[in-house]
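Fill in residues.
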């Protein structure tokens, strides 16, 4: 007697990070401002969850909840990011800052934030980190020390 076994492969249910879902309000890919010039880039909930983990690993010691411990006047809030020179309220602006940290007014190198070279964090990872910071600035309640919408 021959026995036939049929295996049906199914992909696991996609689990969305609770913080990303609840506070960043992302359950499907979203388009974020890439360059301040009208270009956008799509980021999945998984991308933002990875960005959150990168933030927790590399940034949270100085930027708890989007604040800046060394200078509380300069947070990672959306208005503050937009007011920087150059503006940091888009993915590329945040990446440019991380690659070469400058003071808020752009007049000198910043010694408070570590430079993040491509050899340390490749482009794909730094984009996810920047996307997390940008989306948190847009949506996370209390991010940067202010109530968010």
């Amino acid at each position: 007697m021959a026995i036939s076994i049929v295996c049906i492969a199914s992909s696991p249910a996609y689990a969305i990070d609770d913080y990303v879902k609840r506070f960043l309000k992302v359950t499907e890919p979203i388009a974020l401002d890439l360059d301040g010039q009208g270009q956008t880039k799509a980021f999945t909930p998984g991308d933002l969850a990875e960005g959150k983990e990168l933030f927790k690993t590399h940034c949270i010691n100085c930027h708890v909840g989007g604040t800046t411990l060394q200078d509380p006047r300069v947070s990672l809030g959306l208005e503050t990011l937009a007011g920087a020179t150059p503006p940091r309220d888009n993915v590329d602006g945040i990446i440019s800052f991380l690659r070469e940290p400058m003071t808020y007014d752009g007049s000198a190198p910043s010694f408070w934030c570590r430079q993040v070279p491509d050899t340390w964090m490749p482009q794909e990872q730094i984009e996810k980190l920047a996307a997390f910071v940008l989306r948190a600035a847009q949506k996370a309640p209390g991010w940067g020390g202010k109530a968010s919408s």
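Residues 18-143 form a domain with the Cytochrome Bc1 Complex; Chain D, domain 2 fold (CATH 1.10.760.10).
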